[in-house]
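Forum > Structural Biology > Help requests

Title: Can anyone predict the 3D structure of 4Fe-4S dicluster domain-containing protein?

Hi all, first post here. I have the sequence for 4Fe-4S dicluster domain-containing protein but no way to get a structure on my laptop. I'd be grateful if someone could post the structure tokens.
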Amino acid sequence: MIYAIASGKGGTGKTTVASSLVSLWGDPVTAVDLDVEEPNLHLFLKPEISRIDPAYIEIPEADESKCTLCRECSTLCQFKAITVMGDTLLIFPEMCHGCGGCLAICPEGALSPGRRQLGEICHGRAGGTRFVMGRLRVGEAMSPPLMRQVKALFADIAAADNGSDIIVDAPPGVSCPAVSAVIDADCVVLVTEPTPFGLHDFKLAWEAFSPFGKPMGAVINRAGIGDDSVKRFCADKGIPVWAEIPFDRAVAEAYSRGEVVAEAVAPLRGTFRQLRNNMREAVREKVAACAR
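Reply #1:
Sure, ran it for you. Structure tokens for 4Fe-4S dicluster domain-containing protein below:
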């Protein structure tokens, strides 16, 4: 099963939850950091990276001797990655989304597939846990193509590790990268904080992800500050609150030292175990409901 740890905004404690769940999951599990623009799960799990694979995106390369400047490619490309100016065909690789449409539509066969490096995919192990991380090249603007390449490994991960569960540290927010991270998950955990700002982005996340119909629950981090507006919203929408992590100095200190909170703060182990159990139970109920 794939469990996505998401949040409506950054800084809510998403990676704190993901790393703690990985540390006490029990069953075979793979930790995947899909926050490819700013991955930081490795800072807590401290995996030993054994392999780094470059990740590429397909871009068009032009044979000017064949190009008749018909403009069919530039008319098709909504991202303006390829255009004709005067009698010159121009390609802007950084703007190309790699759809391959221009290659398919070129009537003269003047375009062929090339590539440029988008980022890299890191493989390793954190103790007995398999670890995979996508890392976007500095300056790149498009994370979904790299995320898709990381997600393409999920089937192999499950097969190689005999049905290993996958815990995904998703990008924050509700834009394309966040949606791309949760859309294939079997369960979504939304991490938030009990403040007006937290509630605002929590609502956005719930509105963005709930149409997928996946089991979804909330984790309230820094519980004890702010107000109970998040709880009231959850009660109103039928969102279960699976865990509350108290606003505690010991948690902040463990985080600042780059430690896994569930390992560093013993009283919270029960909280994260209950969160794990709630996530598994939600998936079991969903599977049973689909089977009926």
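The chain is about 35% helix and 30% strand. The longest helix spans residues 269-291.
Shout if anything looks off.
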